[in-house]
Amino acid sequence: MLSKSQISFIKSLHQKKYRKETGLFLVEGIKSIKEFIQAPYQIHSIFYIGEQYNLLPKLPANINLFEVNNAELSKISTLQTPQGFLAVIHIPETNTIHLKNLKNQFTLILDGVQDPGNMGTIIRTADWFGFKNIICSEDCVEAYNPKTVQATMGSLARVNIYYENLFTLLTDNEIPVFGALLDGNSIYKTNWGNEGLIILGNEGKGITKEVIAKINQPVTIPRFGEAESLNVAVSAAIFCSEIARTKN
């Protein structure tokens, strides 16, 4: 049975403030939890419904296991319908990313993406197409937001996420910078080469002016219908797919 202090502590991790203070975040659902167990993440504890214990893989001895009932899981879960398992996981320490380490590959850069579902879908898409790193502006939604984590479906375990001042980062950069802009060259006629930084902007405002100034290859997804705009996660998928197609 969970104590009031345990319930209070886990519920505090629903909020960014306490995730930052403790260096811990939540993952729900056995499939996603398995992804983090297999990745170089440190698992703090796992809470599980008793009859589903056999779904757990073999675990290191240092992971705290707590059997809970449905009512208790509902109290600590961020989901309306809990999925039988909840893990508390350590947020990995991330160093400042250096662009020299991103040569000969493609990297997504997100400028002001605010919706956690979009962020999670972009991370999942990047994982599908083999993008290992995503760099976010400092005002992007947090990658360890429970809604973001849920939307990644475990892909967060394999994609490195960095938060940087993009203007500073892109100064004195030698890697081609592609930006998703309305007045760019067609994505289907773009010569990608063998490396690049792919910038996608905020859901409503697009890429900020100071970051646009750092773009040397504007790219657009041609419109054939009447829609005003594309969802940023959809745009990310099209860019990742087109880059993967032309590389292979």
UniProtKB/TrEMBL annotation:
Any single biological process term in GO: methylation
SMART domains named among the record's database cross-references: SpoU_sub_bind (SM00967)
Xref: SUPFAM superfamilies: alpha/beta knot, L30e-like
GO terms assigned for molecular function: methyltransferase activity
InterPro entries found in the cross-reference section: Alpha/beta_knot_MTases (IPR029028), MRM3-like_sub_bind (IPR053888), Ribosomal_eL30-like_sf (IPR029064), rRNA_Methyltransferase (IPR051259), SpoU_MeTrfase (IPR001537), SpoU_subst-bd (IPR013123), tRNA_m1G_MTases_N (IPR029026)
Positions in coiled-coil regions: none
Alphabetical keyword list: Methyltransferase, Transferase
Domain RNA 2-O ribose methyltransferase substrate binding per the UniProt entry, residue ranges: 26-95
Homology family: Belongs to the class IV-like SAM-binding methyltransferase superfamily. RNA methyltransferase TrmH family.
Descriptive protein name: RNA methyltransferase
